[in-house]
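$ fold --in a.seq
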Amino acid sequence: MAIIKADERQLLHRYILVDLAVKSIQFDYQKAEQLKMKVVFMPLIDTLIKDLRKEYIELKNQLAQQKIRVVEWRTIDEYFSDVQVATAGDDIVLRYANKARKTQVENYF
């Protein structure tokens, strides 16, 4: 079994948070378009998505250099999800608490 070093795991964790942040913001984007003040909010949201996508690509490239990639997200139940990660040596599965992950994404900003 491959072992992910602490710095690699931290990079992977940041990558996962940024990925979830992008997905969450894209999901909420349609609701934001319906706001009365959308002229104010939409440019801010667009900039945020652009910045997050740039960070996402940078993190993905850094992980690729270390031969690490996320293969699959699997929802276990309402409380936990597993993420399958391919490394140079083997695939590993990391379990995340959904509520904690959501809180971390919200606090990321």
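$ fold --in b.seq
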Amino acid sequence: MKSAKTTSEVAVSPLFERLFKLSQRGSTMRQEVIAGLTTFLAMVYSVIVVPKMLGIAGFDPGAVFVATCLVAAFGSLLMGLWANLPMAIGCAVSLTAFTAFSLVLGQGISIPVTLGAIFLMGVIFTLVSVTGVRQWILTNLPRGIASGTGIGIGLFLFLIASNSVGLIVGNSQGLPVKLGDINSLGVMASVVGLAATIGLERRRVPGGILLVIIALTIFGVIFDPKVSYHGLFAMPDFTSQHSLVGQLDIMGALNPVVLPVVLALVMTAVFDATGAIRAMAGQANLLDSRGRIIDGDKALTADSVSSIFAGLMGGSPAAVCIESAAGTAAGGKTGLTATVVGVLFLLLMFLSPLSYLVPAYATAPALMYVGMLMLANVSKLDFDDKVDAMSGLTCAVFIVFTANIVTGIMLGFVALVIGRICAGEWRKLNLAVVLITIGLAAFYLGGWAI
């Protein structure tokens, strides 16, 4: 038996080594699988949230569930097997909200035309990626703003997680947020889970983040009446009249009334997803000596192509998920992490009842912990260069305050350019930074921002 096991390991290892370069990046199969499971559990809420939002706009929730799983599977497998990076792709919740409440309900655009707009957005987004425009933006992203984006996303993750369990809630008077019900089961479980995660990670317990997620899920099944077992298996339906696969109307999306919406989606995706990819790569130490993402061109193309696929399948626009940071914190360094996520989303189509089993307070501690890890980007700010450092902090703060990555990046660029001029340091500006700033400012002042 022992000999057979050894032979199997020897046969499998070269294949995975060739595909994912595990030893070269200082990782192992076990480490990558745990990271993939962690990322999957951190982002699985999307298969509940996305169908719910689009369902309000008239989409069939069951069809959207299938589309959401397919988009996450396709995008993550493409990122894993082609780009070899530990970043998962899924339907972007922010763009889903825009699709449901602004396009369909707000502007009265039909569902087929909306899907056509998402498809066109993906095509233009891909052209922007393969022609090198996105890489040009990444190359010319000032160090302060690059670090500030990571800080802002970390704080944003913490806020999202805290709000999902009711720890931080909206406030009708005074400041916009306040402390929620500290005595609620979800709040107490998430706080204890965060503390446990910090302790386990300090002790370097393998899979500590994942262990906390599993433990809190079991706790919920036993003690929380809102968490219940709904079954195990359900066949996805691709043939019913409600299926959205191939139902897009591309010609309708080419209508002059709809085209500005397509361009707004592209502009938002370019800076939102590009900033997220840069932050995730930094978190996973996947930057080269010049600060560029290893295989960054493939990563940028993978998430844009996924939006084309989303339009075809009947899903919302796709992007690299910031929840991927949970997997990189758990040790993910290669595309095997993303591949595991993709395979799990494929399986989830057939195990849809299980998606309702993991409560929000089981994954919230992971997102909170990752958010805190990303705050380490503060140490990368050069406070000897006050303008660069403060523009980065401006970016970070407004990502959180506006709940929008692009808005934070825009205000960071504006602070940098005007700050350099007022400080008499205009010679430190290059043409690329000025052009990006003008483009972003015009995007917002023109009223096209999402």
